[in-house]
Write a structure and sequence with these properties.
Elements (H helix, E strand, L loop, with lengths): L6 E11 L5 H6 L1 E10 L3 H6 L8 H12 L6 H15 L5 E8 L11 E8 L5
Antiparallel strand pairs: 1-2, 2-3, 3-4
Helix pairs in contact: 3-4
Length: 126
């Protein structure tokens, strides 16, 4: 068998954070779910069984937690900061998808959330 493509992912990390445009969002906060998918070649790691040959999802989770702890007005800015830091920390990253959802957005209507999905490409690996 030959590896055709690979990615590493973390699904539905949960946070309570203080992002938002409205002043009350910065005081009360909101609940968020974050999913990250990282395109990277894991062929070496498949053979070596060594964590240093892949993307460590514990490190990815720590990066996400650090960025979620910094209040920002827009989810776009939060998601970009997370994806950009992952790319900086792991040069082998080809692309990163960051899916960030605010579970109780202040829309005045009932919903399952609102958010943003970014697909970031590491132009150093192109």
């Amino acid at each position: 068998m030959k590896l055709a493509s690979s990615n590493i992912y973390i699904s539905n990390l949960r946070f309570h954070a203080f992002h938002g445009v409205l002043p009350q969002e910065r005081v009360v906060g909101n609940d968020y779910e974050l999913s990250i998918r990282i395109g990277t070649d894991v062929e070496v790691a498949m053979q070596t069984d060594n964590i240093s040959d892949t993307i460590n999802y514990a490190t990815v989770s720590r990066i996400a937690a650090e960025e979620m702890a910094k209040p920002r007005a827009l989810l776009e800015a939060v998601a970009y900061a997370i994806g950009n830091r992952i790319g900086e920390r792991f040069p082998k990253v080809e692309w990163v998808d960051v899916d960030l959802r605010k579970l109780n957005p202040p829309t005045g209507l009932s919903s399952d959330g609102a958010g943003v999905v970014l697909h970031l490409i590491n132009n150093k690996t192109l």
